[in-house]
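Record 1 of the preview.
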Amino acid sequence: MLKVSDLKVSYGAIQAIKGISLEVNEGEIVSLIGANGAGKTTTLHTITGLTKAQSGSVELEGRNLLATESHKIVSLGLAHVPEGRHIFSSLTVEENLMMGAYIRKDKERIQQDLSRVYTLFPRLQERREQAAGTLSGGEQQMLAIGRAMMSNPRILLLDEPSMGLSPLLVKEIFHIIKELNQQGMTILLVEQNARMALSISNRAYVLETGKIVMEGEGQELLQDDQVRKAYLGA
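->
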């Protein structure tokens, strides 16, 4: 579904991504794990057109994303939940959600998707008239995921969804990610909490200083001594 081949990205003289290749097949959860500064967020930004690639290719179902303007990528069925959430603080919860559907014209389906988001996140429905900036960190993360869902994507890119959340909320967010996947959503997950990410992933890639150094099934990497020592505190 999503194929990244020999991708290279530089910031001036610094090469941030050094020729990585990865694939996300339809229906999978694929994780990209690694330490801060490994290039995880840069990879997502390049896939979604926010950062320009130096060379390589990014294809979504055969469509060249590197030649597609970033604002048009959403209409191809790819949605990005950025690190830090980037919600519209002064707008209400429901206004934020409707912003996710700005490219759509199918009003009836939009209302159906809004109901779906509220079913998945009952707290958002309870707070639908509340200013988004007054939500807790966990609720803001739910809102960011819900807003992305409103574009009716087939693949969801999640950047550090657990960042800054309590252990209890982290479990809740990961339960929701798994539930979304079971409903048919394909997911590429960038996450520093390697243990949680690998536990729900079909496959994963380990990124170190702009290079993929390991790949395998999520459960396989969870048991790998090298991964355990470097990322799982074991």
